[in-house]
Design goal:
By secondary structure, the chain is an alpha/beta fold. About 45% of the residues lie in helices and about 15% in strands. Helix 4 packs across helix 6 and helix 11 runs parallel beside helix 13.
Length: about 400
């Protein structure tokens, strides 16, 4: 599966600082000090609907992570998956009278278009669940043969008791896990399970549903969590730098993925740090496909909204915050974009050296994009007041905003 084209990242003078970021597993900030190649895995979409603002906010957050790392003169090895086979996709296809494969391909293509328009840097490897099935099956067999998985009426479940570190990513108690499992695709009330939150690794073929050769597992399809484990282990191995996604993935997805990998390899941790973006709401409720309260990137683009303004709207909120999308949020972003573009269009202006340092410091401090935007606002205000004659300043501001915030002025 192919990703989307990369926009050029301008070179900036000097070098940025190492990123200090909130790690979900420890509950505090850590300083990320990758090697020459920083390794980032971000969980991708289930392509049964278009890219909404919640998606865009999450992928914008991890685009900032990449840009901070690039500014430290590191390379970035970024991997993202596509869950192109799962219950929600099959249910949507059936409800619409659509072919599930055609639906997945269509919505994945639209996602690529949205990511391109927003100028989010693409992953080096963009990998679908379906294409990963030949790699998933041997992992499930290994877990079963090692006693870390068991069969229940033809389905294969992972035993969370097989990982001594289970629970360290989310820090949740058993009852909270059970409730979230029921809410987020699990089946904690199924009789016969060893633990209510044990997740499915391999679902035996169901009548009328697609299935694949599972070798000794029998025909079926993979569970959700093992998909990302297979992809991450193939491209990174254990101990990569950051696993990321929305905060709704902390449990069960990232907790279970870590345990799958740790049980498979006997190593710990799966990822060195777990980073999660907040949820975006509309009309007081989290945007979700099940509720239908969505604002789509593609719809705004069709209405003529500049993608740079959409990106500024996302950047105006801290990545870990839960916030609400409103018309006022977008209007403020459109106005800010106009002010910034007017400011950099002049032939000279106030020195921008301090601005570059401020933006770097803000982003290195747990991706504080609102503080970075405020710094650019101050420079633009000084420019409007006629406060400088540095001929190189507008160009440096433009490159800073492009390289570090992904916004083309």
């Amino acid at each position: 599966m192919h990703a989307w084209p990369a926009s050029e990242v301008p070179a900036l003078p000097g070098s940025g600082r190492d990123l200090r970021i909130h790690d979900t597993a420890t509950g505090g900030r850590v300083t990320l000090v990758p090697g020459p190649v920083a390794r980032l895995y971000v969980c991708g979409i289930t392509p049964y609907d278009a890219t909404h603002m919640g998606h865009a906010a999450t992928y914008n957050a991890f685009d900032l992570v990449q840009r901070v790392w690039l500014d430290t003169k590191r390379q970035v090895h970024y991997v993202q998956n596509v869950t192109d086979i799962d219950d929600p996709l099959l249910e949507r296809a059936a409800a619409n009278g659509d072919d599930w494969e055609a639906l997945a391909q269509r919505e994945t293509a639209l996602f690529r278009e949205d990511m391109t328009a927003l100028r989010l840097l693409p992953p080096r490897h963009y990998v679908g669940a379906v294409e990963s099935i030949p790699k998933i099956v041997p992992l499930v067999e290994r877990l079963r043969d090692a006693g870390a998985a068991y069969e229940l009426e033809g389905d294969i479940y992972f035993s969370v008791a097989s990982d001594a570190h289970f629970g360290e990513v989310s820090g949740l108690d058993a009852e909270a896990m059970r409730l979230l499992s029921a809410e987020r695709g699990g089946d904690p009330d199924r009789p016969g399970k060893k633990n209510p939150v044990d997740p499915m690794l391999w679902m035996a073929a169901r009548p009328g549903e697609p299935s694949w050769d599972g070798a000794s597992l029998g025909p079926g399809r993979p569970g959700w969590h093992i998909e990302c484990v297979a992809i991450a282990l193939e491209h990174f191995g254990m101990g990569f730098d950051v696993q990321g996604g929305g905060s709704d993935l902390i449990f069960p997805h990232h907790e279970m993925g870590a345990s799958h990998a740790q049980a498979l390899t006997g190593e710990h941790p799966f990822a060195k740090s777990y980073v999660h973006a907040g949820m975006v709401a509309l009309h007081g409720e989290k945007m979700s496909k099940s509720k239908g309260n969505l604002v789509f990137v593609s719809a705004l683009r069709r209405e003529g909204v500049d993608p740079a303004a959409i990106r500024l709207a996302l950047l105006s909120h801290h990545y870990r915050a839960d916030w609400e999308w409103t018309d006022a949020v977008l209007a403020e972003a459109v106005e800010r974009l106009g002010r910034w573009r007017a400011a950099v269009s002049r032939p000279d202006g106030p020195s921008a050296d301090a601005l570059l340092a401020e933006v770097r410091e803000a982003l290195a401090d747990d991706l504080d994009a609102p503080a970075a935007l405020a710094a650019v606002d101050r420079w633009a205000a000084a420019q409007a007041a006629g406060g400088g004659t540095d001929e190189g300043a507008p160009g440096l501001v433009s490159r800073t905003v492009d390289a570090l915030l992904g916004v083309a002025l």
